[in-house]
Structures are given as structure tokens and as C-alpha cells.
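Async update (no meeting this week)

Hi team, since we skipped the sync, here's where things stand on the single-chain job. The sequence we agreed to prioritize is pasted below, unchanged from the tracker. I ran it this morning and attached the output directly underneath so nobody has to dig for it. Comments welcome in thread, and please keep replies under the output.
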Amino acid sequence: MKAPFDPKAFLTRPAAGVTLERFEAGWQICTQGEPADTVGYIRKGRVKVATFSNRGKEAIVGIIGQGQFFGETSLRSANTRTATVVALEDCLITSVTTEVMLSTLSAEPEFSKFFMAHLLSRNTRLEEDLGDQLLNLSEKRLARLLLVLAEQGQDGGRPNEINLSQEALAEMVGTTRSRISTFMNRFREQGYISYDSHGRKIQVYTALLVSMLGL
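Output:
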């Protein structure tokens, strides 16, 4: 009798078409414009997804972490990558070739359900992000972004760390660097966050921010 298919085991064991790789913080995992022939799965760490204009201006379109896929556009016959993915911290990544990904989705219903759950979660997040941009003021958008990046509720009362510049936060919130600095100082004074002198290593007290947002 065939053993039940385990999606996570499939994504953590090297095999034909399945490669396990380690990337240090700051390394590029894939680059906009290069051939799109694999789908990535994050086993550990967090990555930044960014797109670049013809003039080289960067726009951060997402921060994704452990247990999530990226590069799914390769499954719809995309010829090239539409975004650059960079490790924000030391990462363990599984790369699955498009051919193996499609054949496994077709042959293994459990893997198909696992991948579909990811797509639905991603779609929900995109809808929430759009509503946030349309309905909330910049300060609340920043608070919600910090909660998402800190993986709300993961560590209870302990602060979760984010390693991201205020310039990057400003891009993602859709406001200026100076306004982000004002909001961050206010959050720190209110005890919602703390950060080092450079403002990059941000400790987020999720329970406090949740109470601020009324969630």
C-alpha cells in the first residue's frame, strides 16, 4: 500500500528537480528578468520581493517567510522572473523545477491542496493590503505592517524582531521616510516597539500593537 504523500517531506528532501539551498542575509535568491524555471519554498527565514523600474527604482511588493512559496508565475508559462527575491536573514530554500512542480500537483492531491491553501492565503493577504491602503491612515498602515512582519502572536508577550530600514517601511506603507520616523518614535514612546540606534533591528510587542489597532 502506498504511503500517504507528505507535502512538507517532499519539500525538505533533495530529489530529481528538487534542490535544497542555503542563502545568507543579503544574497539574491532570484533576479527580475532571469529565466523563470523554478518555484521557491521557504523552509527557514524571510525574504524581500521587489520589482525594479527601467531606471532602477526599487519597489518592495512583499516580505514573505517560512512556509510560503514564491515564483509561482513560472507555473503559467512565464518566460522571465517578474521580481527579485533577496534574503533578509539567513534562509533555507527549496527550489522545485517547473516541470516537477506541475507533475507533482497533478499526481498528488495532498500536495495540490497544500499549494492551494498557500495561494488562498496569499490572495487574502493581498485583499487585506489593498483595503488597508484605501481605508487606513499611514500610522495604522504602519502598525498593521509591523504586526504582519513580526508574525502576529507567534511568541506571546515576547517581542519579535524585524530587520528592515525605515526607507523600506516607507515604501511599503506608501508614505515618506520622515513620517515613518515620526510614527516609529511615537510607537516607541508608547511601548509598542523598541529599536537600536540605527532603527533597523525593530522589536515589536505584538500584543500592544494589536490593542492599538482594536483587533
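Quick observations from my side:
The chain has a mean pLDDT of 85.
Residues 31 and 84 are 4 Å apart (CA to CA).
Reply here if anything looks off.
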